[in-house]
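Contributing: when you submit paired examples, paste them exactly as shown. First protein:
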Amino acid sequence: MLYLAALFVSLFIVFFCDEALKKRPYLFYITGSIITIAVITVSQLVTNHTITIESEFVTKYLIGIFSKGAFAGALWSVVMWAGALPTGSALIKKIMPIRGELSIFAAAITLSHAVTYSITYIKRFMLNMEHDRPLTSDFIITSLVCIVLMIIMIPLTVMSFKAIRKKMNAKTWKKIQRAAYIFYALIYIHIMVLYVPQAKNGNTEKFFSIIVYSIVFIGYAVFKIAKVYIKKNKPQKTGFVYAACSAAVLLLTTGAGITAYGKA
């Protein structure tokens, strides 16, 4: 599964490239931008039959991990979970110092997926209009969700640059950053809209992807709520809270799996 491979790479960056990302973030931003331009260019050349890539490994993993949004999704997952991990944990100590830089890098990588599929969707829209065919509900929902995702992502990314952040009022910056919650929710909705119909048609890979994405995104929501609760109420024993959270994630993920199982 591409997402799991991308998640492994993302965690590798966090654990082994954190100092480089913090000291020389622009090298990562430039690299991300170059990758995005290359992926968009190659994807269009392949789509237009200008070039042919016979290697499945290249198309599925080296290009697909970017063009299909797996790497972007994995990076956002790491950025997202930084806000839900227990305070003082080893992982949060690794992520928080580079969270801003990692989100900018994630945004640069996201464009490789967004632009590639935007071109595909625009072509599909024009073709439907040309032949007077109605647009499907999943096409409309996905398009609207993606537009809102970009509207949220771009200003949040700009405000993640230190030079911009320093010029803003701290309270105002923090309030605007709360839009990230909507951003994370829409990523999950985007995935579900695309994958559930395919899973219902017997695509086991998409069904497995739904389970994994549900664990990550539903898990984040549940543990984020738990973190807020613990901070506010300061219970003596947090073990019960986290056990209840784990049970809730399992239950909700099972519900997502049931939704995606069967025939469309």
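Second protein:
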Amino acid sequence: MSQGAHEPGGRDLVLLGGGHAQVEVLRRFARRPEPGVRLTLIAREPRSLYSGLLPAVIRGDCAVTQAAIDLAPLAARAGARLIVAEAVAIDLVVGRVVLADGAAVGFDMLSIDIGGEPRMPADAAGEGAIPVKPIGRFLDRLTRLDGTLPAGARLAVVGDGAGGTELALALAHRFARRACILLVGSAPAPLPEAPARARRVAAAALAAAAVEVRAGVRAGAMHDGRLALSDGTDEPVAAVIWATGVVGPALLAAAGLACDADGCVQVDAGLRSVSHPRVFAAGDCAAISGVARPKAGVWAVRAGPVLAMNLRRALRGQAPHPWRPQRRALAILGLGDGRAVAWRGVWSLAGRGAAGWKAWLDRRWVATYR
């Protein structure tokens, strides 16, 4: 599906992916178009769901339409052609993105913000595996699970960071009295990145929600309804939801882009590929060389203005401005019971006030793009 028509002449800037950084590029180009530049957005889905609101969607506190940005009007305001399709390859020699239907979209400059995928063992992608990303596909699988999950079943969530912990609490709310939730992680306790008080609050919330925790173990494949664990035991489960650390989609390294050990595009401080200067990348699919930051939506959001500025500068033949993300960012985790816990560094805050703060921040961000 596409919208918009391109006039002859000019240069083609293709935005691959409608992630958190890329929607800001569209917003800024809508406010101030770049002369002589034809803009195309290629997105897997017609809506971009804000990851911060995913737990609220899972709990039923927020409709998908309230948590998502409709890309069609946003692209139209920027004068961009919108193509809703899956990208399967990037040809950096010719300068084109190849789509699942065989069509190709040429580019003079390419900006990539397609998110990442949960890290999973090679043999874990089969029976019962449900990756939390891409989010649209995850929600489709979750909806199907609603109608097929037998009473008393167990669902495993693999990943004990903020994303996995919040997901487990949201699922416990969604499937209350219908299913048991098992949280599996390799750390000694959930939320290893948080300060001690936030960890205690989260542990109490998990216990109150009757979420079982298997700490200090790694999950493997699921066979015959049992999830194998690294300590030699296994757990009976109906499905396994993977919310582990992010790796880059395979098409990035396959294209010949310089990638880190996780398959994410290596970019410089200006978000430009270190191997291909006409390619930029941001969000979970990118890694700034020499700057280690967690994969989280907050970094993608903050990369948006930098990406927009440096794409514009590159189109004008100017050098990108360097960006160094701050070392720490605010994290707010919904506890599934009307409360949340927030932290930054060693500081933390828990309660209904933190939940209201999170809801306000999340909805304000989405409203910016409507």
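If you have annotations for the second protein, write them as plain sentences, like these:
DSSP finds ten helices and 26 strands in the chain.
The two ends are 21 Å apart (CA to CA).
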